[in-house]
Amino acid sequence: MSISISWRSSLVLPLLLPLLLLVSSSIRCAGAVQTSKLQVLIPQDLRKKGEGYDHRDALFGIPPYGGSIQQQVFYADSTLCSTGSGSGADDIKKGGYPQRSDGSAWKTPFILMVDRGECTFVQKVRNAQRLGASAVLVADIMCMCDRPDCDAEADGGAGFCESEEPIMADDGSGSDISIPSFLVFKEDADEIKKVLMDNVQVRIQMSFKVPAPDSRVEYDLWTHPSDRNSRPIEKSWGVAALALAEHASFSPHLYIYDGLRAGCQDDQGHNLCFNLCTNQGRYCSTDPDDDLDAGATGADVVVESLRRICIWNLYGKKDGVGQQWWAYVDYFIEHCDPFVDNDYSSMAVASKFNDPVCVQNAMDSAGIEVQKINDCMANSGELADLSNATNSLLEKEIADQQASGVILIPSLVVNKAVIRGSLSFSTVLKAVCSGFVAGSEPLICQECANCQDELACVTNNGFCAAKHGAFQIVNGSVPVQLFGVAIAALVFVFCCVATIQHRRQQMYMQDQIRGIVQEYMPVTSQTGANDTSMGLPQDDPDDDDDGHGNGGASAFSIT
User: How far apart are CA 27 and CA 275, in angstroms?
Assistant: First the structure.
């Protein structure tokens, strides 16, 4: 009996849940290194020795890697699920703790502490950012069940505790958030809140670092070919990888779902997740166009992932740079990727994503020998819908994935530390450059990591226009200095043109007045003769310059 496509779609969707659970569980994996520190500076009795307060970084925002934020803390007496506008926002800023006797608003810059609950983490942090906060501390309101000091009934608690650590995940709308945020566990947050509510000033430092063991940085990018959020960094980072050269070692990882753990293969070895998987449900990936009935499939993504693994192993693994790998990915995204204008086109997916011609063109443009890649893919093990065989390269990727601290795609790991926040070019460059031991940073880091336009600096071989007094346009916006010079130049040109035009107008009017006066207003001289000189020199009738004869009148003016 045949199974219709639409029935298959409704059956496969519930089976996607194990895959999502698999992603969220990876945060518990060993090997992750803490990249931030939370410490109280004032008052001293709140200060914790060693690594400071235990906390969890948000998976959104832009942490200032290599730097820190040290500010006064205010505790909001609002959930910050809504700030309103005008007087509503002002009322929030005038409230909270410590209280101010003059009723003044929070003075920027400041760190804002807010209780967890009633809305998403992203919504709270976004509203705090709008209120002027430099960073946010979200205070948990439930303690961890496995902590000895957890008292679920304390402070009016409802008798509940958390068996799993909460994750400050992005709700899908956090791309506009530019400030960092931490989740502080209830026991620690309660101590800080108590001091603040006693109207005592608290000053906190939030530090962001990457382990720097030596003069060579090792960094890994976890992604998969159909991930939309990976495209910007995949298209832009190639020039930085080449500039870092021997100073850094890059390794790409293609995220493959273990179909066996996700329940995509039954006891008889049959594929239960259909076109999301290959090898009878053994290796799976997400559907690139979110359409199980048409277009590219999860199985196509698995095939492309294996192809990129082979390209890296043959053309990038030796030097840790992979010029051909970056060139291939850039061409693939530009010409073969189905993602068009923020939406997928089923026709583009079907004809391009796994189209042999487009894939071959991508490899040809990058200087990759197609036959070598095909041999690598074949030698790693069979990859087919009806085969239940294992593939050595995909098995290794799954093993590396389970041993890493990856929690979401895309993820960047620098010196075994998972980098939090959005993976913009600026964030990645700062994170990688902060991984060098002090004094060993290459030129690209010395000149570009703190440049106004990092990508332009790297592209220009480490020349930062802003540092050397030149003007540059960043993200389509004109710098204030350049705008001011342009306005001054326009004003100067306008004044010159106006002056010239004014003088020309005066000369023209003078000529007109002379003509009119000469024609209609004859003046009688003392001799009684008509004199039309009007202060205009007349020709000497006898051409005698010695003063004899009837000379022309001179210097006669009307007053």
Answer: 28
